[in-house]
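Model it.
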Amino acid sequence: QVQVVESGGGLVQPGGSLRLSCAASGSMFRIYVMAWYRQAPGKQRELVARITTSGITNYADSVKGRFTISRDNAKNTVYLQMNSLKAEDTAVYLCNRDPAGPSWGQGTQVTVSS
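Modeled.
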């Protein structure tokens, strides 16, 4: 079981950047594929980016080239660097394993607006 705490969200103008962090507990962190998800009001939760234990990454088409996922196994932390943000990136961002485990954190709100 991995428990997570997300942070780093906020209000940013279109074209701006944010870096999200996901601090995970549990000694098994380093064996899991980890991912960032997002959920916008009235929409289904979607997987935004994932990273394997060896650092291989995959991205949703909507964020490819703008977002970068990374992990630091020594710190049990996953990051999401978000650049060139758009209004449609506005959502609550959550991290979890991939496939997602049953336990979700509170998430961190990202609002892109002028």
